[in-house]
Amino acid sequence: MRHHIHPDAISYCSIVAAGLAGVCFWQSQHHAWLLLIGPAFCYLRLWCNMLDGMVALAAGKASWRGEILNDLPDRISDTLIFAAVAHSGFNAAVSGYWAALFALLTAYVGLFGQAVGVQREFSGIMSKPWRMVTLHLGAWITWALLEWNNGGIRFAGLTVLDWTCVVILAGCLQTIIVRLKRIMRALAARGSNRSGTA
User: Exposed end of the chain (fewer CB within 10 Å): N or C?
Assistant: First the structure.
């Protein structure tokens, strides 16, 4: 607070962190050690995403504009990171792009509740932090196999990062279903309450 850092600047920093993570994954086919560094920037992105809201509340600068600047950088960050994974050379591009798409859908569904006047949904097993943790594990396992398994990173026809994206896809699907069910229950409960008081 005493440094007078605006929460919007922190939001923009999260995109920079995601961009650096993306560069690491994109260039990891030439420098495999970048697979170790990329996840660190993913966590820096998460930290910035958490910090911007906290700073906005503490500084009394929370606003609807801030809501947009809190969420839009997240969507840009997810796209940057998973598009870079798609072009890392360690998995099929299609798996990375599907992971990016489902990350966006998961967040979009989470906003449905807020849009229709109930609560915003953060439930489900593959929220933003867990997507980054899963990607972190996939990246580090890939690096370890490259170092100590003679470059053998394929299992059952897919690479470790392909399987990582499959896990993220499955988790996102579960998360989407859980969030939609909770939103529909909240809407039904609100409708019942209104009928009861009519």
Answer: C
